[in-house]
Automatic annotation (TrEMBL):
Compartments (UniProt record): Cell membrane
Protein name: TVP38/TMEM64 family membrane protein
Keywords: Cell membrane, Membrane, Transmembrane, Transmembrane helix
Chief localisation class: membrane
PANTHER family: GOLGI APPARATUS MEMBRANE PROTEIN TVP38-RELATED
Pfam families, per database record: VTT_dom
A cellular component term, taken from the record's GO annotations: plasma membrane
Membrane topology type: Multi-pass membrane protein
Membrane spanning residue stretches: 6-21, 33-51, 71-92, 118-138, 144-166, 178-199
Domain VTT: 51-169
Family affiliation: Belongs to the TVP38/TMEM64 family.
Amino acid sequence: MKKWYTLGMYLVLILMVYVYNDEILHWMQYGDAPVLLIFAAALGFIIVPVIPYKIVIGMLGYMYGPLLGAFISWTAASVASVIVFWLARYLFQKQGRAYLSRYEKLEKFQAAIEKNPFLIILLARLIPVIPQAVVNVIPAITSIPVVTFAVASALGKIPAMLLYAFIGSNLFAGTSKLVLSVGVYVLFLAIVYVVYRFWLKKLLH
């Protein structure tokens, strides 16, 4: 009964954010809302991704500056990841294990997480091509502690949050800073990819 109640509350949240997403975005951008309410709205857009969260990060960077905008975005994303992790573990852990057993690569990813949970989750967050939903749900199906997931996940989100908040804050301030920040981020991703290529990929094959 508790599982159905939790699932029902989650579905209500999805419906509300989906129906009123334009109004919420307008209110976030032009309304004089307290930071806590802005945080709650950002949290809703992560849990219910009706628009790309990169847009929300950029908008918060434009509203509050790169550091505070990135911090609000990062905090909301980190909390949302733990919520999704907890929901997946609480509601679908048994079904998830059965589902993963059908797909060899996903099962190998699960095994790699159980061997090196902190580093695998951290790297998976840093690599943009890995779907974030996968990084939230697959660790939930394993037996790793929620604290390990939360810390690794939060640290892995920092570079992208800083980049998109910086882009949002400098959207109308010329291109030189934007080009420099994107270049630094691309270099950082190249280093992460090398680590993935020669270490993480070996664990998955």
